[in-house]
Specification:
Layout: H1 12-42, E1 46-49, E2 52-55, H2 60-63, H3 66-74, H4 83-93
Antiparallel strand pairs: 1-2
C-alpha cells in the first residue's frame, strides 16, 4: 500500500509570500536571458555618430532595468521623473 501525502495548508499571507518569491525567481531568470541576449548582440549593435559607428547600448542597464522589474513585482511605486530626464524630454520636444 502507498501512503497518501498530507495536504499542506497555508495561510493567504504564506501563499502571497510564495507567489512573490516565485515571481522574483522569474525576474532573475528573465534577467539571465536578457543578459545572454545582450552579450550576443553587443558585438553587432551599432549606431552612427557622425562618421563613427558606436554601440547602441553603452551598458547592460540601458538594455534591461533589473531594479525596475523588481520594483514592479514588489508593487512599489514607479520613480518620479528625475530632473535630468525631464530636461532631456523638454530638449527633444523643442527640437
Amino acid at each position: 500500500m502507498t501512503e497518501l501525502k498530507k495536504i499542506e495548508r497555508m495561510t493567504f499571507y504564506e501563499y502571497t509570500l510564495k507567489m512573490t518569491a516565485f515571481q522574483l525567481k522569474m525576474v532573475d531568470e528573465d534577467y539571465a536571458l536578457h543578459k545572454a541576449a545582450w552579450l550576443a548582440q553587443q558585438v553587432k549593435a551599432t549606431k552612427k555618430m557622425g562618421k563613427e559607428m558606436r554601440p547602441y547600448y553603452t551598458s547592460f542597464e540601458k538594455f534591461y532595468d533589473y531594479a525596475k522589474r523588481e520594483r514592479m513585482v514588489l508593487g512599489q511605486e514607479e520613480e518620479a521623473l528625475k530632473d535630468n530626464d525631464f530636461s532631456d524630454l523638454m530638449m527633444k520636444a523643442n527640437k
